[in-house]
Inverse folding.
């Protein structure tokens, strides 16, 4: 069954062939007017349109043959004679079809006998035009095939690039999950004997976190609201361990809840802040997570009251959490993102992340 594209192409070709026939008719008719030829316009109209439509009748066979046997460098001396033979068959067939069609139309309209003149000269005359038409059709088909091959190659390269990017993102994301799991299991193991109640609570919270993570394991991006829910599950684990020694506050305006962020973005960063802030046993570790919109940007802030950066300079070894997050952001957003870690004037450090602003509904539309 013919598909829509094939029907559209057939309609376009029919229109162009009809246009060519009408153009030839217009040329002949104008020439007759200039020569004051009194014959009716119906005669050149029948001639030119019969020539156009008999060519249209043979065109599918020409297209099939030209696409099936293109002339290449390796088979040039084999394919060229083959095309010349097909051209000769086409030229003779087309000329005979024009002659037979006009004879039939003249008979049906009562115009008498159609005089095509001396056939050897007619074959030669029509053959010159048909030679130009044949190679013009061949050139158009080869250009179309070349363009189509280039487009398919570009699409294939784009698909491959996307698949590679997704594979790299998945590898980075999967690297974060075992890192978090190992750390949490170590924490649970340290409480199993001396504080089994805390260990049990941490296991329950870990189970909830892993279920939420697995539900979105195939997604690279989630809404910020969902990401905060993942973070809450993780924080329940940490609060069960550190109790009063840890305070985490989250400031999340309603307008930013539906904006899209990378999945598992916040958990490793907050984990990093907690690890640096909890070292000082003389005071409570305080972590603040905030989000705000700034025009077409989403800004995420993670503040802690830890020791900050050494001498206010670059941070020491960032570890898996920060380094993987930076790599994922570059992979997802290129230069349209920013991750910056700096000291706060009041003490501690501030991690700032800026991402392009787009909502979950906008992404799926």
């Amino acid at each position: 069954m013919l598909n829509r594209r094939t029907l559209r192409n057939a309609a376009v070709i029919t229109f162009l062939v009809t246009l060519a026939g009408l153009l030839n008719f217009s040329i002949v008719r104008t020439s007759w007017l200039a020569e004051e030829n009194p014959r009716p316009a119906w005669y050149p109209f029948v001639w030119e349109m019969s020539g156009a439509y008999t060519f249209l009748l043979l065109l599918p066979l020409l297209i099939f043959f030209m696409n099936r046997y293109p002339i290449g460098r390796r088979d040039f001396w084999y394919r060229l004679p083959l095309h010349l033979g097909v051209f000769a068959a086409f030229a003779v067939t087309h000329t005979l079809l024009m002659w037979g069609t006009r004879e039939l139309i003249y008979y049906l309209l009562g115009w008498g006998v159609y005089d095509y003149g001396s056939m050897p000269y007619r074959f030669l005359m029509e053959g010159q035009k048909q030679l130009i038409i044949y190679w013009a059709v061949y050139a158009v088909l080869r250009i179309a095939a070349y363009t189509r091959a280039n487009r398919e190659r570009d699409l294939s390269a784009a698909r491959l690039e996307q698949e590679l990017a997704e594979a790299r993102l998945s590898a980075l994301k999967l690297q974060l999950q075992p890192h978090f799991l190992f750390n949490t299991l170590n924490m649970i193991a340290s409480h199993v004997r001396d504080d089994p109640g805390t260990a049990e609570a941490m296991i329950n919270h870990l189970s909830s976190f892993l279920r939420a993570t697995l539900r979105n394991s195939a997604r690279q991006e989630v809404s910020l609201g969902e990401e905060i829910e993942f973070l809450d599950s993780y924080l329940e684990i940490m609060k069960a361990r550190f109790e009063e020694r840890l305070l985490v506050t989250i400031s999340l305006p309603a307008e930013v809840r539906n904006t899209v962020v990378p999945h598992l973005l916040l958990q490793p960063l907050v984990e990093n802040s907690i690890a640096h802030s909890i070292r000082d046993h003389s005071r409570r570790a305080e972590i603040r997570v905030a989000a705000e919109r700034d025009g077409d940007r989403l800004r995420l802030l993670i503040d802690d009251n830890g020791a900050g950066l050494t001498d206010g300079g670059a941070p020491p070894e960032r570890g898996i959490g920060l380094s993987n997050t930076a790599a994922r952001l570059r992979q997802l957003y290129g230069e349209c993102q920013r991750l910056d870690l700096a000291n706060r004037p009041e003490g501690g450090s501030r991690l700032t992340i800026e991402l392009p602003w787009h909502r979950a509904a906008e992404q799926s539309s």
User: Anything to note?
Assistant: The CA atoms of residues 221 and 262 lie 4 Å apart.
